[in-house]
Design the sequence.
């Protein structure tokens, strides 16, 4: 699993977050997504091999600006994560 962070420009409210989340979930390999219009970022948990470029293209096709992307191995957090 991998964690992909994508800067998204043009999200102004909770509906924008939901719209971006729906678009990202439609990309093959995406397991979880959370977007924040306040931070201007979407954080995606996806299977290894899922391309950040494909996710960014899906977001861009909906009219949102896409900035910097970062990909890192997913580290489970929380009570049972290490």
Sequence:
């Amino acid at each position: 699993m991998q964690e992909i962070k994508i800067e998204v420009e043009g999200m102004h409210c909770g509906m924008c977050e939901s719209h971006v989340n729906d678009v990202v979930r439609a990309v093959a390999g995406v397991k979880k997504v959370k977007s924040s219009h306040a931070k201007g970022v979407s954080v995606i948990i996806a299977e290894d091999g899922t391309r950040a470029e494909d996710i960014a293209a899906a977001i861009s096709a909906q009219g949102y600006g896409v900035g910097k992307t970062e990909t890192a191995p997913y580290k489970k957090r929380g009570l049972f994560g290490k």
Q: What stands out?
A: The longest helix spans residues 14-25. The chain has a mean pLDDT of 94.
